[in-house]
């Protein structure tokens, strides 16, 4: 895992987007197409704002997204489909975007649909974040490090739900859904490169454990230590607890 500490959020977003775009351009140059994974949440604002400005042949790019709440309408401000359409898909001429349909009648069938699709699209670069509880996508602790299923139905723990409330996506904890569809840990790790953008002081403890602690399902993002092409972008606040900065 390469750790890059930037001077502020804007530099973090710019550098993370540039590194990710380099991997996309390389894939398009080598094989005529690329597949990416996109995360959501407040931590990705700056990265996405910069990624859409990159000179990429987006028509040759296929995108998947990491996770979505079950039962939340796409029109809700917290919908990840809504988030990605507003901040990414509406701003670039993306070739194909496979969204997670959290309103599907059968969430398990939706997992299978997405799983079949992503197995046909080897992932070149995944853009991810780290949760306050150390989650990766919506894989809350203790995460399943072993399942080969690309997408899972997961239960969201209270810490994860409180983070969503704290970021202002919901008016009360009761409104935050308790279940979601999430890309699995093993599927994320199949990405050739992983760009992890993590700003904010509230993430500092999780960052320290993910970088310096043991690899454990109790801190799901610690698994990124095992991936040979993970690039973790921080700024002074999120890096503040690291032993070496």
Primary descriptors:
245 residues, alpha/beta, Rossmann fold, 7-stranded parallel beta sheet, 3-stranded antiparallel beta sheet, 7 helices, 18% strand
Folded structure, characterized:
- The protein has 245 residues and is of the alpha/beta class.
- It has a single domain (2-234), classed as Rossmann fold.
- Helix content is 31%, strand content 18%.
- The protein has seven helices and ten strands.
- Strands 1-10-9-6-2-3-5 form a seven-stranded parallel beta sheet, sandwiched between helices.
- Helix 1 (9-31) packs across helix 2.
- The protein starts with a strand and ends in an 11-residue tail after the last strand.
- The relative contact order is 0.19.
- The mean pLDDT is 95.
CATH class category: Alpha Beta
Number of strands: 10
What structural class do you assign from the helix and strand content?
alpha/beta
Instruction: Give the N-terminus to C-terminus distance in angstroms.
Output: 14 Å
Write down the Rg. Answer: 16 Å
CATH architecture: 3-Layer(aba) Sandwich
Q: Look at the structure and give the mean pLDDT.
A: 95
Report the total helices.
7
Shape, principal axes of CA atoms:
globular
Number of domains: 1
Amount of beta strand: 15-25%
Q: What's the CATH topology label?
A: Rossmann fold
Biggest sheet, strands in spatial order?
Answer: 1-10-9-6-2-3-5
Provide a compact summary of the structure.
By secondary structure, this protein is an alpha/beta fold. The protein has a single domain, classed as Rossmann fold, CATH 3.40.50.1360.
């Amino acid at each position: 895992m390469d750790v890059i500490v930037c001077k502020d959020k804007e530099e973090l977003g710019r550098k993370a987007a540039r590194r990710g775009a380099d991997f996309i351009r390389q894939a398009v140059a080598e094989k005529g197409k690329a597949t990416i994974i996109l995360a959501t949440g407040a931590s990705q604002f700056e990265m996405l704002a910069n990624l859409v400005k990159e000179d990429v042949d987006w028509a040759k790019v296929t995108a998947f997204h990491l996770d979505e709440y079950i039962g939340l309408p796409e029109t809700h401000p917290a919908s990840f489909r809504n988030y990605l359409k507003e901040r990414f898909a509406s701003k670039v001429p993306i070739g194909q975007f496979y969204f997670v349909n959290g309103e599907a009648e059968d969430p398990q069938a939706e997992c299978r649909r997405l799983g079949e699709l992503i197995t046909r699209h080897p992932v070149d670069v995944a853009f991810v974040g780290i949760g306050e509880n150390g989650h990766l996508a919506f894989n809350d602790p203790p995460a399943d490090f072993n399942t080969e299923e690309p997408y899972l139905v997961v239960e969201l723990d209270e810490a994860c739900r409180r983070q969503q409330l704290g970021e202002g996506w919901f008016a009360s904890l009761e409104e935050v859904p308790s279940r979601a569809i999430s890309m699995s840990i093993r599927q994320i790790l199949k990405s050739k490169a992983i760009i992890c953008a993590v700003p904010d002081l509230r993430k500092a403890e999780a960052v320290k454990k993910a970088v310096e602690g043991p690899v454990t399902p109790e801190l799901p993002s610690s698994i990124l230590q095992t991936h040979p092409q993970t690039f973790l972008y921080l700024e002074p606040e999120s890096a503040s607890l690291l032993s070496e900065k």
